[in-house]
Amino acid sequence: MVPSVITLTRLSGSVFALNSDLIERVDSTPDTVITLVDGTKYVVREPLADVVDAIREYRGAVIAESARMGAGSDAASANPPSRRLVAVPDDPDQLSASSAAPVSHSAAGPREEGDR
């Protein structure tokens, strides 16, 4: 299972987990400041490059897990069940009459009156 957060260390030494999908930007000023999309800021001990690496590893793990989960469904997606779209009239009386004569249109679409 892929963790949904990255772990970081505050300047005080306490470790916390952060959802990296909420990060708007990471600055190095010289402390590393993480700004979230809602404006919340966190100052952390990890250098900018380490934060970027943690985000990259997290996102890579998500993609790898997605590919692993999808690998089992390749056989099903290669041979999808056949389906067809059928127009059903609002009036049930028209249903028996319309099923007797299938409608066919050319690739150019339905004809207008006067087109021949």
TrEMBL record:
Region named Disordered: 67-116
Bias kind Low complexity: ranges: 96-108
Stored Pfam families: FlbD (PF06289)
Keywords carried by this UniProt record: Cell projection, Cilium, Flagellum
Signal sequence region: none
Name the UniProt record assigns to this protein: Flagellar protein FlbD
Organism: uncultured Nocardioides sp
Taxonomic lineage: Bacteria, Bacillati, Actinomycetota, Actinomycetes, Propionibacteriales
